[in-house]
Amino acid sequence: MKRIQVNFTKEQYELLQKLKGELGNSDSEVIKNITMAWLSEKSLISTTLKEKIFNNY
Fold first, then answer.
1. What is the DSSP code (8-state) at residue 43?
2. What's the half-sphere exposure (Cβ side, CA atoms, 13 Å) at 42?
3. Residue 34 and residue 36: Cα distance in Å, rounded?
4. Exposed e or buried b per residue across 8-35, where buried means at least 16 C-beta atoms within 10 angstroms of its C-beta
5. Distances from the Cα of 17 to the Cαs of 21, 29, 33, 36, in angstroms?
6. Coil/strand/helix, residue 57
7. How many CB atoms lie within 10 A of CB 42?
8. pLDDT in tens, 1-56
9. SS (H, E, C) 18-56
10. From CA 54, how far away is CA 57, in angstroms rounded?
């Protein structure tokens, strides 16, 4: 596990608080799930995996 410090404005943090329960129960879960959803939406996860698979064979 790796810890990463991020800073949010008051308004950004208030928005994150509204997502608790929907995207996770803690600040870190919400941030992690937002990040993973964004990466998935941008197809960065599947693209990276496809490149790794292609390069290994």
1. T
2. 8
3. 6
4. eeeeeeeebeeeeeebbeeeeebbeeee
5. 9, 11, 13, 18
6. coil
7. 10
8. 889 999 999 999 999 999 999 999 999 999 999 999 998 888 877 777 777 777 87
9. HHCCCCCCCHHHHHHHHHHHHHHHCCHHHHHHHHHHHHH
10. 6
Cβ neighbours, 10 Å, residue 51: 10
Token pair belonging to 14: 């208030």
Rounded distance between C-alpha atoms, residue 25 and residue 47, angstroms: 29
Alpha carbon distance 57, 4 (integer Å): 33
